[in-house]
Amino acid sequence: MNAKLDSGVATRPVTRQTFDEVLVPTYAPAAMVPVRASGLDVWDQDGKHYLDFTSGIAVSSLGHCNPVVVEALTRQANTLWHVGNGYTNEPVLRLASALIEATFADRCFFANSGAEANEAALKLARKYAHGKFGPHKSRIVSCYSSFHGRTLFTVSVGGQSKYTEGFEPLPPEINHINYNDIESARAAIGDDVAAVIVEPIQGEGGVIPGDIEFLKTLRELCDKTGALLIFDEVQSGVGRTGTFYDYMNVGVTPDVLTSAKALGNGYPIGAMLTTNEIAQYLAVGSHGTTYGGNPLATSVALAVIEQINQPAFLARVREASSKIVANLEKLAADYPQLFTRPRGKGLLLGLPMADGYKGKSKDYTKVAEKLGLMLLIAGPDVVRLAPALVVSDEQIAEADRIMRQAADAFLAG
């Protein structure tokens, strides 16, 4: 028998302990609970202020509660929310047109997340390969230490065993190569490969930029074998590396590109971009989604890309990057026992821990958080910085001050 829902449930007091009582334990969130935010400023339940250099894992690139995005969402929320995929809608048509005008693509498919965008890309690759060449062409090649999502297919493609243990049997016909290893790629990519999927800069794998020659070789091998080259730009896309998408930095054009995270600035949306020739293999009924491309998400995404995909905005991203990198270089030089030289692109940056402190990146970020700076990790050995793209010089200086204070406290502790 169902009990009547308490009328006060919406205002019931909740704490971090409530998480441990009511949610499936797939995460281990911080002790503090954010309740309010604006730009890069966040406040927790106790009113404590934090400077956010995570942007929700490279998501809120225009900052929290960006007024232009809020206005777009509010306007659409008072107009049309959802129609289902038996109908199209004006916002999704405008967003698709804008993405096509800004990229190599001719066609878009919209989903709700990066995992779903990658799932669609991988399904498209198999469908294309089987339709054009036959069922023998099925193999997917990915890189070790990559990350492409948490569905069974995408997590298997990801190449990190810690995410697949206990979920066997895994989908077959998936192989992995070493990132930035040209010889490994040449050995693996043969005529039976349907697709090669790669992050132009590995995010979760340690913030490791792809070598230009490695990415060019993947393009050449795909051209030679008829495989599709998929760029996973879920984390690197929408201005994060200083160009609208990172493939524009490296000068290698993929056949399929996936996008999410910053595309919605926190509103769930994913996108798969491809060409006319390839898109035709996902015919009516071959793939779908209930919520993907709904008017709310696509209105938000259009407002996001209209702000980010501007020359002056992207130039400022590159300028902010150079300032943060200079600070991190000096931090590593001043604390050589703790850090080594930073790496990354744009405002997706990694600060590796020195040999004596490998495995301690999370411990360092916890100290920084207590001092009021929110940071990420990229595995156990790398501190990751992914601030909103609108970060100011004053906020860059404040983050540097707190990171130094955290380094002193960490070493003393």
UniProtKB/TrEMBL annotation:
List of residues binding N(2)-acetyl-L-ornithine: 150, 289
Annotated GO CC locations: cytoplasm
One function term, GO molecular function aspect: identical protein binding
Catalytic function, reaction form: N(2)-acetyl-L-ornithine + 2-oxoglutarate = N-acetyl-L-glutamate 5-semialdehyde + L-glutamate
Matches recorded under InterPro entries: AcOrn/SuccOrn_fam (IPR004636), Aminotrans_3 (IPR005814), Aminotrans_3_PPA_site (IPR049704), Class-III_PLP-dep_AT (IPR050103), PyrdxlP-dep_Trfase (IPR015424), PyrdxlP-dep_Trfase_major (IPR015421), PyrdxlP-dep_Trfase_small (IPR015422)
Enzyme class at the top of the EC tree: transferase
Residue positions where N6-(pyridoxal phosphate)lysine is found in the record: 261
Cofactor notes: Binds 1 pyridoxal phosphate per subunit.
Family annotation (Gene3D superfamilies): Aspartate Aminotransferase, domain 1, Type I PLP-dependent aspartate aminotransferase-like (Major domain)
CDD domains documented for this protein: OAT_like (cd00610)
EC number: 2.6.1.11
Localization in the cell: Cytoplasm
Family membership noted in the UniProt record: Belongs to the class-III pyridoxal-phosphate-dependent aminotransferase family. ArgD subfamily.
NCBIfam families: argD, PRK01278.1, PRK05093.1
Description of how the protein assembles with itself and partners: Homodimer.
Name listed for the protein in its UniProt record: Acetylornithine aminotransferase
Name of the coding gene: argD
